[in-house]
Specification:
This is YXWGXW repeat-containing protein. The chain is α+β, with helices and mostly antiparallel strands and 103 residues long.
Length: 103
């Protein structure tokens, strides 16, 4: 096998390995733990209903040592599923964020 073909095959193998590593790490779950309870939920005006979408209410997000408000947004509906909003749950080591998901 000539040298340029070997180099091409090695580079292709590295690219494929890199893509599979990125794909497997992209599905890893990130666990967010805050040391204190989030502030009370803010009142938001929910926009008029949109066909094919569900409203995901705003929530507090733990970011660099403090809570910041994330405004609500529309989620594209998934037929046959219902939207379970994200929420904070108190645990022994702090408060954990349970992300919104379709169930």
């Amino acid at each position: 096998m000539n040298k340029s073909l070997r180099v091409l095959l090695v580079n292709a193998a590295l690219v494929i390995a890199g893509v599979s590593a990125v794909a497997s790490s992209a599905s890893a779950e990130v666990i967010i733990v805050a040391p204190s309870a989030p502030p009370p939920v803010r009142y938001e005006v929910v926009p008029a209903a949109r066909v094919g979408y569900v409203w995901d209410h705003g929530h507090w997000q733990w970011d660099r040592g403090h809570y910041v408000w994330v405004v609500g947004h529309w989620q594209a509906e998934r037929v046959g599923y219902h939207w379970v909003p994200g929420h904070w749950a108190g645990r022994g080591d702090g408060w954990r964020w349970i992300g919104g998901h379709w169930a």
